[in-house]
Amino acid sequence: MMHQMRAEYGAGGPPDGVRLWHMVRGAGSVAMCGRELDAAAPVREAADWGRTPELCCHTCGAYFLRETPYLAAEHQ
Ligand SMILES: [Zn+2]
How far is the CA of 55 from the centre of ligand 1 (A)? Predict the structure, then answer.
């Protein structure tokens, strides 16, 4: 199962920039933590998890780690 990161905007929407990165399965717009994200929000490769200047969602991180322990372990 492929994963990718998808951005959550700040309260003001896209002009506020990225507030938090979530992880989604496939090309979906619902994060693993259950949050619905803007389908037009920026995405990044799952390999960038933990490497962005913005924070990553802790709940998504926990699910991601459970589903892809080997991939996630490379990024400890
Ligand atoms: Zn999340």
Answer: 11
Residue type at position 53: P
Cα 71 to middle of ligand 1, angstroms: 18
The helix/strand/coil state of 24 is strand
Scan for tokens 């920039």, then name that residue.
Answer: 17
Q: Where are the domains of the chain?
A: 3-73
Which residues are found with C-beta within 5 Å of the ion, ligand 1? 22, 31, 33, 57, 60
d(CA 12, ligand 1 centre) in Å: 19
Length of the chain: 76
Residue spans of the chain under pLDDT 50: none
To 10 degrees, the CA torsion angle through 5, 26, 8, 63? -70
Tens of pLDDT along 53-62? Answer: 999 999 999 9
